[in-house]
Amino acid sequence: MNLLSFIIIMAMICIFGFINEKVTKLTYEISLMLFSIIVSIIALVGSSLLYNTSVGNILANIQVFNIEKFLMDGVLCFMLFAGSCHMKLSDFKTHARQITVLAIVCTLLGACFYGLLFYGAGMLLGLNLSLPVCLMFGSIVAPTDPIAATSILKKFGLPKNISFLIEGESLFNDGVGVALFVCFSGLAVSTSSSGFFSVMLPQIFGAVAVGAVVTLLAFPLYRFTKSDTLGIFVTLLSVSLSYYLCELFGFSGAIASVVCGILFAALHSKFCPDEDEEKAGRFNSFWETLDSLLNSILYIMLGFSFVRILQMQYVILLALVAVAANMIARSASLSLSTLIMGKIPDGYDKLNFIKLLTWGGLRGGLSVALAMSTKEILPEQTYYIILGCTYAVVFFTTVIQGITMKPVYERINRSVLSKQNKK
Fold first, then answer.
1. 3-class SS at 7?
2. Are 222 and 234 in contact (CB under 8 A)?
3. How does DSSP classify residue 274?
4. Contact predicate 349/422, CB 8 Å
5. Among 8, 7, 140, which Cα is nearest to 68's?
6. CA distance 56 to 308
7. What is the pTM of this model?
8. I need a surface site. Which of 146, 242, 308, 317 has the fewest CB within 10 A?
9. Using CA atoms, how far apart are residues 104 and 140, in angstroms rounded to an integer?
10. pLDDT digit string (tens) for 162-209?
11. What is the C-alpha to C-alpha distance for residues 254 and 246, in angstroms, rounded to an integer?
């Protein structure tokens, strides 16, 4: 991203944010994405009328922000650290079984269910989509997005334990999604592909080891320095080095970033309980501000890249199929996962828990980045179908589900309280 692009994005963040604060009063991240989509569509229509050319030609010449490069070249690690550095290790231990089932079993089932549904829809529409390609697509959209979950859902007043499960699943299931993506993409291009567990285990355990070792080595610098600024620099070094090493060794840099955040929070709570309030305040303020800035840039990028959906065959029909398949696959995978995940916290029964996590399963930049990475391995038309359907799912889950999440939660909560009162 050059300086001019950064200036343009920051101008839009400020203008859209101000309009939302004074007029629309939507959730901040949702407003940025929605306004960006509106502006990009207006620009597209205006260009089409002004230059009297086809939408396809205009799209071919539009400079779309490279979300894959923005996320995967290091920014993602800071977002994940910011979202996890306030999580308590004791809470994770309490809900380890539930989070493990949601992150691994639910993601695996969701990817398979989605792939099968989309394969069937492709056959009905006469699209030339193989089963491995559809399963690869399932692995792209199955993992819930940690950035969307931590920045949007936490603002709706969810119960503490349920909120922790949603955030925990979102923070850890991307590694499983990446492992599935590697397996299915290998099958899709007819190359040898390792088994799921042989890919997943190094992704997860290697990442955990790297994140833990780097954090344990770096934390003493934070603990014993008297400089607030140097302490923040230590956390930046810790998470960026962990992410880089994992990318170098073929592990999940995202999971290593989450491990850094959780372990740092645990070490901080144990060894720095009486830390100077000013130092702690600056630390929290820095990471909250950085997280907000990077999230804002990402949602602007997502909004302006949304026009890529127009390059997909059968735009409206396939977008509806993609969204419907997502809802069915998410609900079915949760239904089976609840059979082995143990007791659900906060008094939720299985039905209301499935409803909440189905509607709260937001997707975001990670799914788009994975979809973009298939450009070199898929035929052009297939690539645009996968990318367009991914954008459709991201738009629906982020904007539509995000906007309606609060009333949906309130309705579910009334049902939970009603059942509790009857007991």
1. helix
2. yes
3. T
4. no
5. 140
6. 10
7. 0.83
8. 317
9. 14
10. 888 988 888 888 778 877 887 888 777 765 455 556 666 777 788 889
11. 9
